[in-house]
C-alpha cells in the first residue's frame, strides 16, 4: 500500500538517504528502521532523539565531509602514488577534491596555493624490455607521450593524472568490457602465468587479454578461437586504445599480454600443427602492431634524455646535502622510537624515506636493490672492520652481481 502511494500519479517518491549512527548503514526510511531494528525496544522519545541526531550528522557531512582539500591530503599521505590513488578513489565515490594537481605536457604539477606553497613534479613511467624496431612513423603526438624516468638516480614510479580520464574514456567506448573472470580458458591462462612464467601478480594481464578478446568477440560467454583469424579487429582495438588517450607504454602492455596469451594457446595445443601455425601468424601480426608503439616510447626516451643533457643536473654533493640537513630531525625521531614515545605516521614515513636516501644517495644503490632486499638478508648482515655489510641477492637491475653496501654503525642503527 505504501509503495502504491509513493507511485501515485506516476511519480515515485524521492527519499533522502540517511545513515543510522548505530549500525552505520544507509536507510531510506530511518524512522522505520530504528523502530524495527536498532531501537525496537526503546521508547518513541528515544527514537525521535536518535533520528534528530542522525539528521544533524547527515547535514554536517553534506556541508563538510564531502569536500576534501588536496593540500590536507598531501599532509596526511606522503607517498605521491598512494595519494593520487586515494584521490581517484574518492572521486569515484562522488567526493569533491579542491586544488587537485594539474597536467601540462605529460608532467603533473601538484600546485598547492597559498603562502609558501611548493610545486612538486612527477614523471610518468615508461615500460622497458621491449623490441625497439622502427618501421614506420609513430602515430602518437607529443601530448600522448610519457617521459622516461627510469634512468633517474632516485627514480620512483609515479601515477599519471591522465589515468582516470583514460579509464573513463574506455568505459564510455565499451573498451572496458570483458569476459567473466571464471571463464575456464582465462582461469587456465592465469595458472600458466603463475606456474610457468612465474608472474604471481598477473590479474591485470588476464584482464587486459579479456578486454581485448571481448572487443574482438562482442557476444557469447565462451572464447571463440576464430579470433586468431580476425587481425583487422585486433588492429582496430589498438587504434581505439589510442583514441581513448592511453599512453604508448600502456598500449604496449596490452599487446605484450595478448602475445603471452597466444603463446599459451600454442603451447596448450602443440600437437595441432594447423592451430599452431595460426597462433604463430597471429603473434607475427601482434609484433607488427607493436613496432610503432615501441617507436613512440623510444622517441620519448630520446627527447627526455636530450632535455636532461641541456639542463644542469645536480651534483652528488647537492644530492647528499639532504642527508646532512635532515639528520638532526631523523635522530630525534630515532630517539623517540627507541624510547617508545609516540611517533606519527607522517614522521615514520619521512624516517623510512631517509633510510632509503642513505642507501641511494650515500651508498649509490639502485632503487630496485632496495626493493629486493628482504628481512632475512638484513638479519644475515656481517660486521667487518667496524662496518655493517649487507648483500642483496635478488634485485631487478641490469647488473648480474649481488648488491652490497657497508654501513656505519650509526647508519645501521
From TrEMBL:
Residues 115-154 are annotated as: Disordered. It comes from the Eukaryota. This is Uncharacterized protein. It comes from Anabas testudineus. The lineage of its organism: Eukaryota, Metazoa, Chordata, Craniata, Vertebrata.
Amino acid at each position: 500500500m505504501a509503495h502504491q502511494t509513493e507511485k501515485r500519479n506516476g511519480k515515485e517518491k524521492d527519499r533522502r538517504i540517511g545513515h543510522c549512527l548505530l549500525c552505520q548503514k544507509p536507510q531510506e526510511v530511518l524512522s522505520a528502521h530504528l523502530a524495527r531494528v536498532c531501537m525496537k525496544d526503546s521508547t518513541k522519545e528515544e527514537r525521535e532523539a536518535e533520528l534528530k541526531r542522525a539528521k544533524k550528522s547527515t547535514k554536517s557531512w553534506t556541508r563538510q565531509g564531502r569536500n576534501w582539500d588536496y593540500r590536507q591530503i598531501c599532509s596526511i599521505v606522503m607517498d605521491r602514488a598512494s595519494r593520487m590513488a586515494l584521490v581517484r578513489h574518492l572521486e569515484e565515490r562522488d567526493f569533491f577534491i579542491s586544488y587537485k594537481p594539474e597536467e601540462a605536457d605529460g608532467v603533473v604539477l601538484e600546485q598547492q596555493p597559498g603562502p609558501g606553497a611548493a610545486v612538486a613534479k612527477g614523471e610518468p613511467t615508461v615500460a622497458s624490455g621491449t623490441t625497439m624496431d622502427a618501421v614506420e612513423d609513430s602515430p602518437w603526438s607529443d601530448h600522448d607521450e610519457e617521459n622516461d624516468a627510469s634512468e633517474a638516480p632516485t627514480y620512483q614510479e609515479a601515477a599519471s593524472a591522465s589515468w582516470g580520464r583514460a579509464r573513463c574514456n574506455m568505459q564510455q567506448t565499451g573498451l572496458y568490457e570483458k569476459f567473466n573472470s571464471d571463464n575456464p580458458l582465462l582461469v587456465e591462462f592465469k595458472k600458466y602465468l603463475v606456474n610457468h612464467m612465474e608472474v604471481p601478480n598477473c590479474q591485470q594481464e588476464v584482464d587486459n587479454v579479456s578486454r581485448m578478446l571481448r572487443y574482438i568477440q562482442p557476444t557469447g560467454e565462451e572464447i571463440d578461437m576464430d579470433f586468431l583469424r580476425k587481425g583487422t579487429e585486433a588492429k582496430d582495438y589498438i587504434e581505439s586504445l589510442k583514441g581513448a588517450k592511453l599512453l604508448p607504454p600502456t598500449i604496449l602492455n596490452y599487446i605484450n599480454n595478448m602475445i603471452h596469451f597466444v603463446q599459451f594457446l600454442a603451447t596448450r595445443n602443440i600437437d595441432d600443427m594447423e592451430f599452431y601455425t595460426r597462433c604463430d601468424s597471429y603473434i607475427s601480426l601482434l609484433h607488427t602492431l607493436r613496432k610503432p608503439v615501441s617507436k613512440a616510447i623510444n622517441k620519448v626516451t630520446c627527447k627526455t634524455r636530450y632535455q636532461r643533457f641541456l639542463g644542469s643536473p645536480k651534483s652528488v654533493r647537492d644530492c647528499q646535502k639532504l642527508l646532512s640537513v635532515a639528520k638532526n630531525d631523523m635522530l630525534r625521531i630515532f630517539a623517540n622510537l627507541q624510547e617508545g614515545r609516540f611517533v606519527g605516521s607522517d614522521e615514520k614515513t619521512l624516517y623510512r624515506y631517509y633510510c632509503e636516501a642513505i642507501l641511494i644517495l650515500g651508498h649509490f644503490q639502485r632503487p630496485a636493490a632496495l626493493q629486493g632486499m628482504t628481512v632475512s638478508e638484513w638479519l644475515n648482515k656481517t660486521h667487518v672492520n667496524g662496518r655493517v655489510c649487507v648483500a642483496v641477492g635478488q634485485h631487478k637491475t641490469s647488473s648480474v652481481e649481488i648488491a652490497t653496501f657497508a654501513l656505519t654503525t650509526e647508519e645501521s642503527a
